[in-house]
Amino acid sequence: MADNAGMTDAPKAQDNERTFDILVAGAGAAGLALAGALKQAVRRLRIAVVDPKPDAGDGGLRTVALSQGSRALLTRVGAWTSLEPLAQPILKMAIYDGGVRDSVRLEQMSFDAEAGAPLAHMATNDDVAASLRKACDDLGVEMLRGAVKGFAPGRQNGRIELADGGALRARLVVAADGARSKLRTLADIPTVGWDSGQSAIVATIAHEREHEGRAEQHFLPAGPFAILPMTGRRSSIVWNESHADAEAMLALGAEDFLRHLERRFTLKLGALQVVSPVRSYPLAFRFARRFVADRLALIGDSAHLVHPLAGQGLNLGLRDVASLAEILVEPLRLGLDPGDPGTLAAYERARRFDVVASGFGMDAMNRMFSNDISPLRFARDLGLRIVDKTPPLKRLLMAEAAGASERAPRLLRGFGL
Length: 417
What we know:
Layout: E1 7-9, E2 18-25, H1 29-41, E3 47-51, E4 63-66, H2 68-77, H3 80-83, E5 88-90, E6 92-97, E7 107-112, E8 120-124, H4 125-139, E9 142-145, E10 148-153, E11 158-162, E12 167-175, H5 182-186, E13 191-207, E14 214-220, E15 223-230, E16 234-242, H6 243-251, H7 254-265, E17 272-274, E18 279-288, E19 292-293, E20 296-298, E21 304-305, H8 313-333, H9 341-369, H10 374-388, H11 391-402
Parallel strand pairs: 1-9, 2-3, 2-12, 3-9, 6-14, 12-20
Antiparallel strand pairs: 4-8, 5-8, 6-7, 10-11, 11-12, 13-16, 13-17, 13-18, 14-15, 15-16, 18-21, 19-20
Helix pairs in contact: 1-2, 1-4, 1-8, 8-9
């Protein structure tokens, strides 16, 4: 879905420095969603997204499970229409605990979709970003090609210096430039966190039988192994191993790799075939000490990096988007300063607890399940079964995962700003 429609190069050094109301650094899903949401709410705003490779992707390898709240936001921005045909509804989620060589892995907990309301939708990161780029083009968001080199906040705006010598100004700059955020570094915002000791092996698998919209999470001693349904007879896998073991798996020949994969996936869907490149990504938990600075706000992976255990990384980033957009929209409509310190402080207060609690919770769950200690295994399996047999608890977990509770920002509940 990627294209270069509406793409222009950022100003060169000899050109006048253009000034925007909002300048987003980073053309990933979070940055594009914020630009689109604000432009849709206040059409007169001057909004631009700048990125050195705005249409870059990974060939559809990495995927995301879009929650109900995220789908509502994408619908309001105008991206869901083009994305929905490419997304696979998740109709059932099953959780297992066991060993790689166990002949039978018992289902400890399951969730079923209600009529007309899938638990989530699986889509590739590339397709999500492409649908948002199209929505931004339709709304008139400017897409600029350029790499951030410097950042200097001022009384009325922040100034972005570009690698080619050009510069841009904005009343508010938003860092959506990823886990290694250049803007976060330039603003001298430190991060807190740690390496999980694991890498995620990611690939797309074809299988003989239909998955029927079923997702599975297998808690294995080395780490979680997720099977995520994609369109057609395909599934995406996210296979956690130690760094060393992940590297060894990627060094195997195709037949040996497939044999290890079959032990974890099992052959319930028939013969398997790897139909994509196989890559690994190191996993970590990390968040910024501050989500704001003078004339700057952080969203998405620039603000936090979490374990992909529950597929909440992008959903967490879109919760940033919904919160920041809701806080900014009224000052922007009134012609007030979106970079006002009080406004930015309100955004930080709104997001910090959710981000830190979600990140610690996923990291703790991964640590609790990534082992084969018998007493701990007994306790966690008992806990899962108790929750599975307690409908109010299951409904609470489903509501939290959906991200669309009554306390959620308006965009996540399907309302306009």
